[in-house]
Structures are given as structure tokens and as C-alpha cells.
TrEMBL record:
Organism: Actinophytocola oryzae
InterPro entries assigned: Bacilysin_exporter_BacE_put (IPR022324), MFS_dom (IPR020846), MFS_trans_sf (IPR036259), TM_effector (IPR010290)
GO molecular function ontology, one term from the record: transmembrane transporter activity
Upper lineage: Bacteria, Bacillati, Actinomycetota, Actinomycetes, Pseudonocardiales
Protein name as catalogued: NRE family putative nickel resistance protein-like MFS transporter
Principal subcellular localisation of the protein: membrane
Segments passing through the bilayer: 30-51, 96-113, 133-153, 160-181, 210-232, 244-264, 270-290, 330-354, 360-380
UniProt entry keywords in alphabetical sequence: Cell membrane, Membrane, Transmembrane, Transmembrane helix, Transport
Membrane topology: Multi-pass membrane protein
Length: 393
């Protein structure tokens, strides 16, 4: 393409912005709906969304062998159908968990396609800025969506929030139809063969391998705050559903600020990764120690800034360390490592919150970021001298 960020990339950006906003609304409604059944129910619903991400390597292989435009649009329509059903049924907990799992399957199939298409739409020198812009769109999920979601639940109940999320998926799918055809790069082999090849690439290539390991470690700890926050705000600080939504949104405000700053220049991705982990650890520990909803929201801004920086740095490193025919599978495998971490966090968080309380849970989560920095050191060394294998199969 002759100019960076031409119409095709802007279409992708707007599609993700709309969809991410709806995700924040829907996620907040899911947590509040499940919270009435206790911390175990919240963990169960979040786990149902996370478990399908274990199939990320298969989703990556699909992204590398199918037209990515069609794949992304189908995934958005599928999630729209799920949230329409949630709005209509307002289901019991078992049905809620099942539908959350189906939505997670569609989201899993979308992620590697959505990330691996970026190098097709922008030149290599602008990958960092493009990822920062997409990171800015992603922050709408936590900066805007939770606020709307909390207010929608208070004003009209979960049905309203679920229905609005369904609408955003429909709009996103319509926008994606304006992208050019994004056909597979190379001749596809068998799905299982390609999946195994992607796993082998990540396992044997230093940079992607270290990134996958560091993401697994950090998410295994920090994702516990997704369970703990609602109980910290509502039980310990006596906040309302709207205040919970606003506190969640504060995390997104931090992500938004960090991603916005990263769009104005080209900064080294490796240094950003370490800086993001430091900010995440600081904000998460501070959340545990502060006495008011407003103060907790300020700490969540810091933690969110760290997460935003980490996301941009990780995506850029994967794109630069992976050959184009393998990119979907690399993102699928690295994303699966993060989701495995989420599953670990959600399993641990419920008993931890129940026995030791949400404040201790946040302290444990923040300490885990320090461990992730130790695991990320090999990624720094690998990124400083990227070496791609001669063969991708």
C-alpha cells in the first residue's frame, strides 16, 4: 500500500472499536448477572469465556488457511446471535455458562485473524503505531463499555446490556465486509498439520516462546482481579453497580491513555514490555491498599496503562519475529498461553477471594507481575537479534 493507515486499515479499526465497546458492555452485564450467585459463579462464567481460547492454535491455523475477512465477519455474527439469546432468555446459571462458552469459541476464532491481518494492511515500519491504534480501540472495552454496561444494568436490567452488545457485533460484521479479500498466504495443508507446525514454531523460536511463557505467568496472576474487583467495590467499599462499572472503566482509561501516547512515535517494543509490567504491578498492588472507590479507580488507571503498553509491545514483537505464512498460528499459540493463564487465575481467584478477601487477592496478583518480568528476559534477548527459521512447516 502506498500510504500507511489507508481505508482498509481504518475499516478494521472502526470495526474493532465498535465491537470492543460492546464487549465491555456485555462483559460487565455477565459479571453482574453472575455475581448474584456468588464468587464461584463469576469465576465459572469467566472461565467459560476463557476455556475456548485453549483452541487458539487451531484458530490460528484457520486464520492462515481461510479468507480472513469472511472468517472475522462470521465470528462477529455468531457472537451477535449468542447475545440476542442471552437478552431474550435471561437464562439460569448453567445456560448462561454454556452460552458464554459459545461466545468464547467465536471470539477465539476471531483473534488470530484480526491480529495477523495487520501486517497486510500497513507497512512494517508502522506496525507499532498501528497496534497502538488498535490498542486504543481495544481500550473502549474497558474504558467506555463497562460504564455503559453498569448504567444499562441499573436502568434496564441485563437484557438491555446484552441486546446492545449484540447490536455492536452486527455493526462490526457489516463494517468488515468493506475490507478487501484477505486470502491465505501460500498453499494450505491439513488443518492438524498446520496447527502442529504453528505450535512447533512457537516452541522452538526463542522470541515467541518467551513471550508466550511471560504472558502465561502474568495473566495467571493479574486476571484474578476480574473476579476480585466486583467484590472489592460492592462488598468492601459498598459501591453500586454503576460504581463498579466506573471502576472497571478506569482500567480502560489507563489503557486508552497509554495506547494513545504510543501512537505518536516509534518506541522500542522490548522496553515497553518491561515498562508495562512495572505499571501493571504497581497499579494492582495499590488497588488492594486504597480505602475508597475513587482511590481504587485511580490505581486501576495505572494498572490499565501497564496493560495497554504490554498489549502493544507483545503484538508488535510477535509480528516482527514471525514470518507471514505462520502469523495467524503464532498469535493463536501466544494467545492461548494468555488464556491458559486466565483459566488458572479464575480457578484460583474464587477460593482466594472467599477465604482471604479481595484485597489479598490483588496483592497476590500484583506480585505475579514481578515474576513475569523474570520470564520475559529471554524475550528481550531474542527480540534484539531476531532470527526466523528457514522453513515455516
Amino acid at each position: 500500500m502506498s500510504q500507511p493507515f489507508d481505508m482498509a486499515f481504518r475499516v478494521l479499526l472502526w470495526s474493532r472499536a465498535v465491537s470492543f465497546t460492546g464487549d465491555g458492555i456485555g462483559r460487565t452485564a455477565l459479571v453482574l448477572y453472575a455475581a448474584a450467585h456468588g464468587s464461584a459463579a463469576v469465576s465459572l462464567v469467566l472461565l467459560a469465556v476463557a476455556v475456548p481460547r485453549f483452541l487458539g492454535p487451531v484458530a490460528g491455523a484457520l486464520a492462515d488457511r481461510l479468507d480472513q475477512r469472511k472468517l472475522m465477519a462470521v465470528c462477529e455474527v455468531g457472537q451477535a446471535v449468542v447475545f440476542v439469546l442471552l437478552a431474550v432468555l435471561t437464562p439460569s446459571l448453567p445456560v448462561l455458562v454454556a452460552l458464554a462458552g459459545v461466545a468464547g469459541c467465536f471470539a477465539t476464532a476471531f483473534v488470530p485473524a484480526g491480529r495477523s491481518v495487520v501486517p497486510v494492511l500497513v507497512p512494517e515500519r508502522d506496525l507499532g503505531r498501528a497496534n497502538a491504534l488498535l490498542g486504543t480501540a481495544f481500550t473502549l472495552q474497558t474504558a467506555v463499555g463497562p460504564t455503559i454496561g453498569g448504567l444499562a444494568v441499573e436502568a434496564g436490567g441485563s437484557r438491555v446490556a446484552f441486546a446492545f452488545n449484540a447490536l455492536t457485533f452486527v455493526v462490526s460484521a457489516l463494517l468488515l465486509t468493506r475490507l478487501p479479500a484477505l486470502r491465505p498466504h501460500g498453499v494450505p495443508k491439513g488443518l492438524w498439520t498446520e496447527t502442529v507446525a504453528g505450535l512447533r514454531f512457537v516452541a522452538t523460536t526463542p522470541g515467541p516462546r518467551a513471550l508466550a511463557l511471560s504472558l502465561f505467568v502474568v495473566v495467571s496472576f493479574v486476571a484474578m482481579d476480574n473476579v476480585a474487583l466486583v467484590f472489592l467495590v460492592e462488598d468492601r467499599l459498598h459501591g453500586s453497580a454503576a460504581e463498579f462499572g466506573l471502576t472497571q472503566a478506569a482500567f480502560g482509561v489507563g489503557m486508552l491513555a497509554a495506547s494513545g501516547l504510543l501512537t505518536v512515535g516509534r518506541l522500542p517494543a522490548v522496553g515497553l514490555l518491561i515498562g508495562g509490567l512495572v505499571l501493571s504491578a504497581s497499579g494492582t498492588v495499590a488497588t488492594a491498599l486504597l480505602p475508597t472507590v475513587l482511590a481504587v479507580a485511580m490505581a486501576q488507571i495505572v494498572a490499565g496503562a501497564g496493560n495497554g503498553v504490554e498489549n502493544v509491545a507483545s503484538d508488535t514483537l510477535v509480528q516482527r519475529l514471525t514470518p507471514r505464512p505462520m502469523l495467524g498460528r503464532a498469535f493463536g499459540a501466544v494467545g492461548t498461553a494468555a488464556q491458559l493463564g486466565s483459566a488458572v487465575a479464575y480457578v484460583i481467584a474464587a477460593p482466594l477471594v472467599s477465604t482471604l478477601g479481595p484485597r489479598v487477592t490483588f496483592i497476590v496478583a500484583g506480585a505475579g507481575c514481578g515474576l513475569a518480568m523474570l520470564v520475559a528476559v529471554p524475550a528481550l534477548r531474542a527480540a534484539s537479534r531476531p532470527q526466523l527459521p528457514a522453513s515455516t512447516h
